[in-house]
Specification:
Largest sheet: 9 strands, mixed
Strand order of the largest sheet: 18-17-16-15-9-14-13-10-19
Shape: globular
Length: 400
């Protein structure tokens, strides 16, 4: 049964100048941190606050969320907090509603595949967080089901829409680097154990039985970032670690951390580019941002984070000389130049939501589909296999 929040009402799209065209979105998993903040508040509700999505023909696409969750108390409270009119604890009933156009899933990974299958069978367009499945076979099955059903499908690939990586993509497309030689990525921060300070991430992230682990979480991201900016990954060699073996859960109870909280990897990309990626929830940050990529090429180098990007061209590269007996006299950071924003400051999740909804309604180009999701699942699994076997793994294209 779908409930209506007492006193809640939708807004108006774009005032009197534009006609509203409603698209109803079932949003499952929005009581979680990512689904709540990034997808509901900063994406769908933010699109409503701006008056909808201008379709360019005098029409504004007006997203109408229907919140779905297992806990009636939590989902009702969320709906009341943000004035969302409709919510439900019955996913089947929501999917049976012909007025619902899109199903979005931000649940834990173990619950995602089955829910997506139901949505596809109900004829809904689907958009979801990643990983899309626990294994490559399941991820490919979702893609094939969506194709057969003729529904639009998409996977969140938010890192591509970060201001810092948009600037990096601009540099790549403009030929700034010449021939790209290497990519070095550093991601992570210290997640408190939960005993003397609350942990910033849920406890299931650190239990293998609950499909936790930083490799499964982050390697789907690294797959699409590397592919879209520098080329497909063709091999991976990884080392996984559980650096903090004992943590405390949301109730303050100690538990054994069985999933990896750090992964260190070397990847070779098509064309010979070498990427080194360190991802860790057990590292203290000595960087400008929580995520940074350094790209070195024959003509120039860049360091890009979530928002900023700095460059050094070969024409202004200084001539360092190794001499450990003398203190360094130059300020190395000051020798780099900041890349201007040029309008690349939109919320990454909101930017991709807008593209996906335009794809659904206008059939505009879209490549971040469930097959892209399967590629991310494959890379994460191969990284874990590499660590278990102590060898380099070749990476192909899923389904081939």
């Amino acid at each position: 049964m779908t409930h209506r929040t007492a006193g809640a009402a939708g807004g108006k799209a774009g005032g009197a100048a534009r006609t509203a065209r409603t698209i109803r979105i079932a949003m499952n998993g929005v009581t979680g941190r990512m689904g709540h903040h990034q997808h509901l508040v900063r994406s769908v509700l933010a699109l409503r606050e701006q008056g909808g999505i201008d379709l360019g023909d005098g029409t504004a696409l007006w997203p109408e969320p229907v919140l779905v969750g297992r806990s009636e108390g939590r989902i009702r409270a969320l709906a009341e907090r943000y004035g969302v009119p409709e919510w439900s604890t019955d996913l089947d009933a929501v999917l049976a509603d012909p007025s619902v156009d899109v199903y979005f899933d931000a649940q834990i990974t173990a619950a995602r595949e089955a829910a997506l299958r139901k949505a596809i069978a109900a004829g809904k367009h689907v958009y979801c967080e990643k990983p899309t499945s626990l294994d490559v076979g399941g991820a490919l099955d979702l893609y094939q089901r969506a194709r057969r059903a003729g529904v639009k499908h998409g996977v969140v690939q938010d890192k591509l829409f970060l201001p810092g990586l948009r600037k990096l993509k601009r540099l790549v497309d403009g030929g700034f680097f010449g021939r790209v030689l290497s990519v070095r990525g550093e991601f992570g921060y210290w997640v408190f154990e939960g005993d003397w300070q609350p942990a910033q991430r849920p406890s299931w992230n650190y239990r293998e039985a609950d499909d936790g682990g930083i490799t499964a979480d982050m390697f789907p991201h690294w797959e699409y970032v590397l592919r879209e900016l520098f080329g497909p990954v063709r091999s991976v060699q990884a080392h996984l670690a559980t650096h903090i073996p004992r943590r405390w859960d949301e109730r303050g109870e100690p538990y054994e951390a069985t999933a990896d909280d750090a992964v260190y990897a070397i990847l070779e990309l098509e064309g010979g580019v070498v990427a080194q990626l360190n991802s860790s929830w057990a590292v203290r940050v000595h960087r400008d941002e929580l995520l940074e990529f350094q790209v070195d090429g024959t003509e120039g180098s860049a360091v890009a984070g979530l928002r900023s990007c700095r460059v050094q061209h070969r024409s202004v590269t200084p001539r360092p000389v190794w001499n450990p007996d003398q203190p360094a006299t130059g300020d190395f950071r000051a020798q780099w130049q900041e890349v201007p924003d040029n309008g690349d400051d939109a919320n990454a999740f909101k930017a991709q939501w807008e593209l996906f909804l335009r794809h659904v309604v206008l059939d505009e180009p879209w490549r971040f589909d469930l097959l892209a999701g399967a590629r991310g699942v494959e890379l994460g699994l191969l990284a874990r296999m590499s660590a278990a076997d102590g060898r380099r793994m070749d990476v192909g294209e899923p389904g081939r």
